[in-house]
Amino acid sequence: MKRRSFFKLGAVAGAVSVLKPINGAQILGSSFEGKSEGPIVLSTWIHGLEANRAAWKVLEKGGKAIDAVEQGVKVTESDLTNRSVGIGGRPDRDGHVTLDACIMDEQSRCGSVAFLEGIIHPISVARAVMEKTQHIMLVGEGAKQFALDLGFKTAKTPLPEVKKEWQDWKKENKDLFKKPEINHENHDTIGMIAMDSNGDFSGACTTSGWAYKMHGRVGDSPIIGAGLFVDNEVGAATATGLGEAIVRIAGSHTVVELMRQGYTPTDACKEAVKRIISKHKDLTNLQCCFLAIDKKGNYGAYSVYSGFNFALKTNSEDKMVDSEFDRNW
Ligand code: ASP
Question: Is the separation of the CB atoms in 38 and 197 below 8 Å?
């Protein structure tokens, strides 16, 4: 779609959804909201700043959002100091660094890998699943074999210093069923969503998951509709935080569907957070965060607890933005 028709469609879609909310959905008043008139890339947490800059190199040349998000999150996957994304990530409770990632484009094509060990760029393996296979998701040994067959680079995990920390943790945590704690230190993930100059959306999400999780655990990040969802008619959303809670409400899909009904990105994220809150009696350490952008270039975020921020890059801005939230830690 050319730029002009994209803006026209955006305006029409906005007007229709405001006048006719689907299923009688309440259209909430907008709270925090930002807007970009051109391409835009948003990503979770402080590591998003650098990732966005890599994505921007694609977007500023008129490149496609799908290439931008892949290039963007690869920066974070390559960062060996990052303890929540890629091969520098913390292991599960048995000492395995298992990686989850997914990607989705403007045609609703998607690919995903989960429980993947020792591959430097899970996001590119996810893209290869999308582009080269008839499947959407490959996990574990099968995903690894696929990656090796395609010549993806490998690395030994965990990194020695990460292994040492895990060994220390293990000494203190012998109870197999002890609930691992999720807090500021032991979770993150990069979720990135972008709109290119053609008005097309894509997204990518990649993580080493919840530190010291059970062996075999897969979170929301590689699950299309939970950690990430893109619908080119509406926009895109991604999530970070306690994956189990995000999966329970099909979080990112919920956010996109709420935007389809006319909710602003912030209010859609807020409604998803409220739904999570209403389904959990115990909210201790239950941080969940959503980030979204709609077809008109409006963007916003909302989290259960304070402390979530996201990186924003447009023609005129390159900065961190604090998310709105339901409560303080
Ligand atoms: N959502 C990720 C997971 O549950 C972790 C995170 O974003 O902090 O694996």
Answer: yes
pTM of the model: 0.89
pLDDT(39) > 60: yes
117-146 pLDDT, tens digit per residue, is 999 999 999 999 999 999 999 999 999 999
Pocket around ligand 1 at a 6 A CB cut-off: 187-189, 207, 209-210, 219-221, 240-243
Compute CA distances 244 → 39, 227, 253, whole Å. Answer: 32, 10, 15
Q: Is 1 part of a structural domain of the chain?
A: no
Closest by Cα among 192, 189, 153, 151 to 67: 192
- What is the pLDDT averaged over residues 5-33? 35
Mean pLDDT of 298-318: 96
Q: Is the peptide bond before 158 cis (omega within 30 degrees of 0)?
A: yes
Q: How confident is the model at residue 9, as a pLDDT?
A: 29
Q: Which of 44, 189, 264, 314 is catalytic?
A: 189
* Residue range of the domain that includes 282: 29-325
Is 189 part of the annotated catalytic residue set? yes
CA atoms within 13 A on the CB side of 297: 19
Which pLDDT tens digit goes with each residue over 87-119? 999 999 999 999 999 999 999 999 999 999 999
Indicate whether 5 belongs to any domain.
Answer: no
Q: How far apart are CA 39 and CA 196, in angstroms?
A: 5
What six digits make up the tokens of 301? 């975020």
Which residue among 46, 189, 286 is best mutated to probe the pocket of ligand 1, counting the most ligand atoms within 8 A of its Cβ? 189
Instruction: Examine residue 155 and state whether it is found in any structural domain, yes or no.
Output: yes
Q: For residue 231, list its beta bridge partners.
A: 235
> How close is the Cα of 45 to the center of ligand 1, in Å?
12
Kindly state whether residue 2 falls inside one of the protein's structural domains. Answer: no
pLDDT at 278: 98
Task: Tell me how far the alpha carbon of residue 242 lies from the centroid of ligand 1, in angstroms.
Answer: 5
What is the H or E stretch that residue 161 is in? helix 160-172
Question: Mind listing the pLDDT tens digit for each residue in 228-237?
Answer: 999 999 999 9
